[in-house]
Amino acid sequence: MNMASSLSLVSSEAPTSWYDLLDPHQAGLHDRLESLRAIQHGRVLEGLPVYDLSMVNPDLSPPRQILDRLLESVTKTTNHRYAVSRGVRRLREGFAVKYGSRFGVSLHPDTDVCVCLGSKDALFHALRVLTRPGDPVIVATPSYPAHPSAVSSVGARVVRWSISAEEGAAAASLLDIIKSSHARVLLLNLPSNPSGMAVSPSWWRTIGAVCARHHVVIINDFVYGEMCFSGNAAPSGLSARESGACCVEVYSLSKAYNVPGWRVGALVGDAEIVGAVARLKSHADYGLFLPLQYAATVALTASEDLVRPTVGIYERRLRVLSQGLERVGWDVTSPAAGACLWAQFPHRLKEMAGGGSIAVAEFLLKQVGLVATPGVVFGEDCDGYLRFAAVTSEERLREVSGALSRV
Q1: How buried is residue 8: exposed, middle or buried, by Cβ count under 10 Å (0-12/13-18/19+)?
Q2: Secondary structure of 98-110 in the HEC alphabet?
Q3: Maximum C-alpha span of the chain
Q4: pLDDT per residue over 69-104, tens digit each?
Q5: pLDDT on residue 17
Q6: How far, in Å, CA of 270 to CA of 27, rounded?
Q7: How far apart are CA 131 and CA 98, in angstroms?
Q8: Which residues contact 385 (CB under 8 A, 6 or more apart)?
Q9: In this structure, how many other beta carbons lie within 10 angstroms of the beta carbon of residue 167?
Q10: pLDDT digits over 147-199, tens only?
Q11: What is the DSSP string of 291-325?
Q12: pLDDT in the model for residue 36
């Protein structure tokens, strides 16, 4: 049975600052974070060093093959006309090729893929067709700030779920949340930003079985799916369909191919939900700039692995940063994937700063010029953590480690 049929289907861009992603209902938190922006700006004006590791905004170059295709496409005057809101067929075929070759998932380009203007666009429209104002949506914690923000933006209500990689514990706690909240949508981000956690195919099947029994639709943000340090791709959330769950997934080229400004993403999976999003988008936009679509197709269908060099760089950078933090007493969560590090700061820093993650972030910015994301923006129970984005060279990260050793 198509679980989407049991639901009533109702009918962006890169932020200027990482905390522009926050839930609009968290105005108080946003105001507290303004001090970080002010301190950083002041240091820049004074010519003091700033190590900005706050936002996963890639500093690496896109693969040359896709840049060449973009430049070639831009010179063709016919490519400057209106595009197609759902995406041109060759790009939808490209997403289907990627899912088949990399993740072992079969997708039909005409029914199972809708090209979107990045992951935020895909997520927002998916939530629009799956929820009504006031509906509860389960959001895994720690959560990427754009997720609760998207839920609130469509008028739905965030229900927090403390996620676990241990499938038995995850299934039991999820079942409790579903029963208490009566939610019919589960929003995940696996592999995870901020923690770098990845899960097994078995985990997806177990969670899928819980969701299938209780008619809960799964949305998985799969931005870091190709960025696992094991050398293998992460299992797609669409694996949950093996247990009968209704599932859609958000895929984006932004991080894996170093093209966040292109805003190339897709919603893939359940045909009914994907079709509803495509219809909604036909009223909202004319689709992505055609040369970007053609260049993205090259990225998705390349015979060589264009992502692996980027993953290797992030893995080395995160190792340097992790070792540096551990030397000065931080409790570091070793990431299995992604481009950031999730670390619990030592109690002495909390005492020196006089508060939780925002106070510690302010303290480190003032003392050594380090800009990190306070853990509280990923959930109230994450106030003992900071997130570091590995968006600078290994040499600069060693400088960061050295500066932290002097605090």
Answers
A1: exposed
A2: HHHHHCCCCCCCC
A3: 63
A4: 999 999 999 999 999 899 999 999 999 999 999 999
A5: 54
A6: 35
A7: 29
A8: 142, 194, 342, 343, 344, 345, 357, 375, 378
A9: 16
A10: 999 999 999 999 999 999 999 999 999 999 999 999 999 999 999 999 999 99
A11: HHHHHHHHHHH-SS-SSHHHHHHHHHHHHHHHHHH
A12: 84
Cα-trace Rg, the chain: 21
So what's the architecture of 18-61+307-405 in CATH? Answer: Alpha-Beta Complex (3.90)
Closest CA to 190 of 156, 159, 163, 154: 163
pLDDT of residue 178: 98
Q: Give me the amino acid identity at 91.
A: L
What is d(CA 18, CA 320) in angstroms, rounded to the nearest whole number? 23
Residue range(s) occupied by CATH 3.40.640.10 in the chain: 63-301
What is the assigned CATH class of domain 63-301? Answer: alpha beta
Exposure of 41 by Cβ count < 10 A (0-12 exposed, 13-18 middle, 19+ buried)? exposed
Distances in whole angstroms, Cα of residue 226 to Cα of each of 4, 89, 251 = 27, 23, 10
State which H helix or E strand residue 248 sits in: strand 247-252
Spatial distance between the Cα atoms of 153 and 169, rounded to a whole number of angstroms: 31
Residue intervals of the chain classified under CATH 3.90.1150.10 are 18-61+307-405
Edge-first strand listing for the sheet containing 340-344? 331-333, 340-344, 385-389, 373-374
